[in-house]
Amino acid sequence: MASAFGKLILLGEHAVVHGCPALVAGLQRGATASATADEGQRLQLGDRSCHRGDGSDLGQAYDSLLTSMGRSGISVEVSPELPLGVGLGGSAAISVAIARALLELDASPPEEPRTAQDSQQVFEASMAWERIFHGDPSGVDSAAATFGGCLRYVRGESPESVKNAVPLVIAVAVAGPAAETKTMVEQVAKLKSQSPDKFQKTLEAIHALVDNAQLALQAGDLSGLGQLLNYNQMLLAGWLLSTPEIEHAVALARDAGALGAKLTGAGGGGCVLALAGDRADAIMNSWKNEGLECFLSKVPASIGATTPGGISA
Ligand code: MEV
């Protein structure tokens, strides 16, 4: 059984599309998949199913992924473990789990260690899948789904593992119905074309926040990191990516003692994250009292920082 991670963008969503770095943390769950040789070329995704190239988006995405891996005559069954379209990287996790299931089909024994070349292939297959749904993805979701852990990701470069000195406790709430990533990315691109100079200044500010957040993570400065999350939320709201529901969930978390809180992913709806410190219970209770679906994710402290593998987008 192959598996892949979901993700939480700590800082830098949207800016990463335009060349800024993003900081991303892997979630412990994402998707699992298994593949079998079968000329039917069917993809079963939870309770949805399609066939390779059957005209549906899913069928097209499956076709692109198989083409990228140079495979045919394979059916795959996937169990998604995350809600889709809420900023948790569920779609990239599905594609990485499928790509790994295809590799497992060839491997003997099936669980043999993954090589950097495998990772590059998996990453490219995931990008081929993501392009069907998201147009022009930066690759941050696919990189997080492939490698997990804490990463600094710059479009077109190999992701860098970031050593977080202390564990992170992150509370996540679904603040509202999802918006399409593609639509939100296009909305931001429109702001860029309307006011390129102003847009560039915001990009530079986000770049500085990401650099400082990386230093804070490495130094174990959680309160500094929390402040930087809050500043990033302000700039994302300036790009019209926040909503009243997101602002409300963010305010609840901060009032309950979160060190920082912001939207995560494409915005316009979907999830918020809060750096919880020792206030996880209070934050979760405050969200639950308002009927918000929420969960806790823990990122253990890193043992050593290494480059996770040679991929380039
Ligand atoms: C979506 O998870 C992250 C965005 O920055 C889009 C992308 O990077 O492709 C909004």
Note poorly predicted spans: 309-313
Overall 3D shape: globular
Under CATH, the topology of the largest domain can be stated as: Ribosomal Protein S5, domain 2
Structurally, the number of domains stands at: 2
Q: How much of the residues is beta strand, in percent? A: 15-25%
Give the distinct bound molecules: (R)-mevalonate
CATH architecture designation of the largest domain: 2-Layer Sandwich
The top level CATH class name of the largest domain: Alpha Beta
The share of residues in helices is 40-55%
Summed over residues and divided by their number, the pLDDT gives a mean of 93
- Secondary-structure-based class equals alpha+beta
What's the end-to-end separation, in Å? 26 Å
Secondary-structure element order, N to C:
EEEEHEHHHEEEHHHHEEHE
Structural Rg:
19 Å
Largest sheet: 7 strands, mixed
Provide a compact summary of the structure:
The chain has 313 residues and is of the alpha+beta class.
